[in-house]
Design a protein that fits this description.
Number of domains: 1
Shape: globular
Oligomer: single chain
Radius of gyration: 11 Å
Largest sheet: 5 strands, mixed
Structural class: mainly beta
Distance between the termini: 31 Å
Helix content: 10-25%
Number of helices: 1
Number of strands: 7
């Protein structure tokens, strides 16, 4: 399962599997958490601004091609 991001697109973040979009959100934390809750392995493609912490269970594998950031709310 892949989690993608594109700042020029609305919603900015999405979860896909085999090319089919399963979930979309403007909140990176929500999209990543949804993917973790629904798959044992996820791949992150793009840049993600995390508003909330991500809860990862034992056995979950996260592969990333870019960066994750947690920024404080303004």
């Amino acid at each position: 399962m892949k989690v993608g991001s594109n700042v020029k697109r609305k919603p900015r973040y999405w979860v896909e599997d085999d090319g089919k979009v399963l979930f979309e959100s403007d909140d990176a934390s929500e999209a990543i958490q949804w993917a973790i809750d629904h798959a044992g392995q996820i791949e992150l493609n793009g840049e993600f601004e995390l508003k909330e912490p991500i809860n990862v269970t034992t056995g979950t594998i996260i592969k990333g091609k870019r960066k994750l950031e947690r920024r404080e709310a303004v």
